[in-house]
Write a structure and sequence with these properties.
It comes from Priestia filamentosa. By secondary structure, this protein is mainly α. It contains 4 helices and no strands. The chain has one domain: 434 Repressor (Amino-terminal Domain), CATH 1.10.260. The longest helix has 11 residues, at 49-59. The N and C termini lie far apart (32 Å). 19% of the residues are buried.
């Protein structure tokens, strides 16, 4: 399996639970795959406000009740 033992952020763990691929979220949110990788692996990373809104809009297509605070400490 891929990713065993790698650090995961709250977003990365959420995506793993749902079996979602980073490239699919990147495409849906219209952000780079590098941004998604950083958001899924770096627990300290907090995206810019505009990127966060794009990500949350894409995430809500899977989980309509998702909130920013579910993924990033603000």
């Amino acid at each position: 399996m891929w990713g065993i033992g790698k650090p995961k952020s709250k977003l990365g763990k959420w995506m793993d639970k749902r079996g979602l691929a980073q490239k699919d979220l990147a495409r849906e949110a219209k952000v780079s795959e590098n941004t998604i990788t950083k958001a899924c692996t770096n627990k300290e990373y907090i995206p810019r406000q505009d990127v966060m809104k794009k990500l949350l809009k894409a995430i809500r297509k899977v989980d309509p009740n998702a909130k920013m605070s579910d993924f990033w400490d603000m």
